[in-house]
Design goal:
Elements lengths: L2 E6 L8 E6 L13 E4 L13 H4 L15 E3 L6 E3 L2 H19 L4 E5 L5 H15 L4 E3 L6 H11 L17 E5 L3 H4 L4 H9 L3 E5 L12 E3 L6 H14 L5 H7 E2 L1 H9 L3 H8 L3 H13 L3 E5 L1 H4 L4 H14 L9 E4 L6 H4 L8 E2 L3 E2 L3 H11 L13 H6 L9 E5 L3 H4 L3 H9 L3 E6 L11 E4 L8 E4 L4 E5 L12 H11 L10 H12 L11 H7 L2 E2 L25 E2 L18 E6 L15 H6 L5 E3 L1 H7 L6 E6 L2 E9 L7 E5 L13 E4 L6 E2 L3 E7 H4 L39 E2 L1
Parallel strand pairs: 5-31, 6-7, 6-16, 8-9, 8-12, 9-10, 11-22, 12-13, 16-17, 17-18, 23-27, 24-26
Antiparallel strand pairs: 1-2, 2-3, 4-5, 4-18, 14-15, 19-20, 20-21, 23-30, 25-26, 25-30, 28-29
This protein binds iron/sulfur cluster.
Length: 744
């Protein structure tokens, strides 16, 4: 008998609606023995039935061969992982956490979450850290994703939600500037909104150092040097002011701080901005005129301007452009962020961020602490304060005063953290590493205990998409017998650590508690229920009571600041954490490709995605390639101050001659994050993934140097993913785990 279940894709922040058919003819079930088949769900308003290849092939993740099916345990450092039962595994974890807490204090135990976890998991993970472990040190990989946009959003508007309007508003705006985003590859179904905008007579401007598939569809492509986005925004604001296109009425009625922003912009005259960014003055003028004269307009940013050591200020400068032209807090106008991970938005609202409690409350706010402590049934004074941000937490692993036992859920920092060889070495210094994941990721391979947990179609739970729309993932099939949900895992650990109440395993019960914890907070979910989400195809927060319709559009009446006015940032250009010099003369920028997702822990296990994008590459301009005597497909070595990566050259004039690009989805020799700079934004603590200084050489000339991880002795003796790319076209490292790596 076949069953169909309406649910959502496990990957990106679009959270496309899909229908899963289970129980049908196995022969039709698709690749790798996937126990489900994806059907269109045309009624879901965000993607209207469209899916990218990642979503269509997602059932391959459910096949037993692709995922973990029982706990794994390492008996001694350097020994192999072996199969274990749940009781033994949880006993080992609880004893290890308790021992480290006893010997080194509560803050020596850390928790590292993920932006793909459901709201319920993120909420309960935060509660577990604060109530059971009593540690301040919890953060998550969303810090690496949207935190600069979030900080800028809060600074300007008093509230952070990815988009303050539904995607469906995009086709109705007059001019949209997309800065450092490539939805044609990262979320293809969203591209239709940008196409409809142009069909309706609107203008699309794309800012990107690469001529991406999205940039190729734009009316105007501005191609600045990496790190030039802040100066570019200021240059456009300068021209808007000089051309008399400031909306004086809006600025006077709904904003504060314009004088400072005007002074900053006037110091960024066109010739100066051309020198900083490489964008010709004529194109700057065209962009300023198109945006300035449009009745309505939007600026959307993505990881390009955000993943910088000045990301908060860069986003702030783009918001200033919106505010000066009256393009915020009005229909079909405003600033928004294209969030990245599946629950990047909800994941940061409910307490797995080092400085936040559920409902987007500050952990330093006495009222917020009292409210949440009341819901949790604990004394507010017992709640820890703010802990270390993600990179600072990872950098301190195993050091005096740092975390010595780490519980990690839904994240793969061995591939996705900046300065990844260093982070890998720090992970190896831990007294205890516990990884909860559906798959044996590169980080899980280092763990002392691996806990196999449920994934999207095997569980129920909510996520919040980039629009702030809270949606419901439904369970379409049973997980393998040896697999448990994180909620059940946390319940089991809490009980072993002496807390027997307050950790339900049913997602809806957790959500009902989350609603109460969020009540009165910025991200107020108290009027949202599973029943309403199902009936209404999602509900937009804030939604403070059952009768409230939800809030698809924010700020139409007032901004969420104490005086209701938006605040100009008034920032100025500054260099990146690392600029090219004689030894490292090129910019490296990193990013994504269509067929892989984030660290690739999931998508590298899907055969059709692996076939489409089998390994890393280095994108080079033809002039640079000629100077280096490198031909298409030749191996090149890219070296930064942190290490070296080797991958085949891909030669294209879509990139600037002073810049090379690498996607970051792979481990091993081609790992882009071996190179990236962990310089942090002072406000958001976002590392500078998007640019660093490198040199590039034919690999044969650089072959004598140490491999990125060679200097890091494998203290844990964990099996390492094989290096990629011994030769062009080499198949990617294992997508399944072998018997040798997981000794029975
Ligand atoms: S666009 Fe994102 S949510 Fe939609 S199918 Fe692709 S990966 Fe999934």
């Amino acid at each position: 008998m076949t069953t169909t279940t309406d649910t959502h894709c496990p990957y990106c922040s679009l959270q496309c609606g899909m229908r899963l058919r289970t129980g049908g003819d196995p022969a039709r079930a698709g690749a790798a023995g996937a126990p489900a088949e994806v059907l269109e769900r045309p009624g879901f308003p965000v993607n209207r039935g469209a899916l990218c290849g990642k979503g269509r092939s997602a059932p391959a993740l459910l096949a037993p061969g692709a995922r973990l099916t029982g706990p794994l345990l390492r008996d001694r450092p350097g020994g192999p992982l072996r199969s274990a039962g749940w009781t033994e595994a949880l006993d080992r974890v609880a004893a290890g956490l308790a021992e480290v807490r006893e010997r080194h204090g509560a803050d020596a135990v850390g928790v590292f979450g993920g932006g793909g976890l459901t709201n319920e998991k993120a909420y309960l993970l935060g509660k577990f850290a604060r109530v059971v472990l009593r540690t301040a040190n919890i953060d998550y990989n969303g810090r690496f994703c949207m935190s600069s946009a979030a900080a800028a959003h809060r600074r300007a508007f008093g509230l952070d939600r990815g988009l303050p309007f539904p995607l469906a508003d995009i086709p109705h705006t007059g001019c949209l500037i997309l800065v450092g985003g490539n939805p044609a590859e990262t979320m293809p179904p969203a591209l239709r909104y940008f196409r409809e905008l142009r069909e309706n007579g609107g203008t699309l401007i794309v800012v990107d150092p690469r001529r991406t598939r999205t940039a190729a569809e734009a009316d105007l492509h501005l191609q600045p040097r990496p790190g030039g986005d802040l100066a570019l925004a200021l240059g456009l604001l300068h021209l808007v002011i000089a051309d008399g296109r400031v909306d004086e009425e809006f600025v006077a009625a709904r904003t504060t701080g314009f004088d400072r922003a005007r002074a900053a912009a006037m110091a960024h005259w066109p010739d100066r901005v051309e020198r900083i960014t490489g964008v010709p003055v004529a194109r700057l003028r065209t962009a300023a005129e198109l945006f300035g004269r449009a009745e309505t307009g939007m600026v959307l940013t993505a990881r390009g301007p955000e993943q910088q050591s000045k990301g908060t200020d860069t986003v702030g400068a783009w918001i200033d452009l919106c505010l000066a032209t009256g393009k915020a807090g009005r229909p079909y106008s405003g600033y928004g962020c294209l969030t990245g991970q599946g629950n990047g938005q909800g994941g940061r609202e409910h307490g797995q961020k080092a400085d936040q409690l559920p409902g987007y409350r500050s952990i330093e706010d006495p009222q917020a602490r009292a409210h949440v402590a009341g819901v949790w049934g604990v004394d507010p004074d017992e709640l820890p304060g703010a802990g270390r941000s993600a990179y600072e937490l990872l950098d301190g692993l195993g050091r005096p005063g740092g975390v010595r036992a780490l519980l990690l859920a839904g994240s793969n920092p061995v591939v996705s953290a900046p300065n990844a060889a260093h982070v890998t070495a720090r992970l190896r210094e831990l007294d205890l590493l516990v990884v909860a994941d559906p798959v044996l990721s590169e980080t899980a391979r280092l763990a002392d205990v691996v806990l196999p947990v449920t994934q999207w179609a095997e569980e129920e739970g909510t996520t919040t998409n980039l629009e702030g729309r809270v949606i419901l993932r439904r369970r379409a099939l049973d997980p393998p017998e040896g697999v448990r949900s994180e909620l059940r895992v946390l319940r089991g650990l809490a009980a072993r650590l002496g807390v027997r109440r307050g950790f339900p395993e049913e997602a809806e019960e957790v959500f009902d508690e989350l609603r109460r914890a969020s009540a009165g907070g910025d991200a107020d979910y108290s009027g949202i229920s599973y029943r309403r989400i199902a009936a209404e195809d999602g509900v937009f927060w804030p939604c403070p009571d059952d009768a409230h319709p939800g809030t698809p559009r924010l700020f139409l009446e007032r901004f969420a600041t104490p005086d209701g006015r938006a605040r100009f940032a008034g920032v100025t250009h500054r260099p990146a954490g690392e600029e090219p010099d004689r030894d490292y003369p090129l910019h490296l920028t990193t990013g994504r490709v269509l067929a892989q997702y984030q660290s690739g822990a999931q998508t590298r296990r899907v055969p059709e995605l692996n076939a489409a994008a089998p390994g890393p590459f280095v994108e080079l301009h033809p002039r640079l390639a000629a100077r280096l005597a490198v031909a298409e497909g030749d191996l090149v070595a890219v070296t930064s101050r942190r290490g070296r990566a080797v991958a085949p050259a891909r030669i294209t004039d879509a990139i600037r001659p002073d810049t090379v690009f690498m996607p970051f989805h792979w481990p091993g020799a081609g790992r882009a994050n071996t190179l990236t700079n962990p310089a942090l934004d002072p406000v958001s603590r976002m590392p500078e993934f998007k640019l660093c200084a490198v040199r590039v050489e034919p690999a044969r000339e650089a072959a004598q140097g140490p491999a990125p991880d060679a200097a890091q002795a494998p203290a844990r003796g964990a099996a390492q993913a094989p290096a990629w790319g011994a030769a062009r076209g080499t198949a990617q490292g294992p997508t399944r785990e072998t018997a040798q790596e997981v000794a029975p």
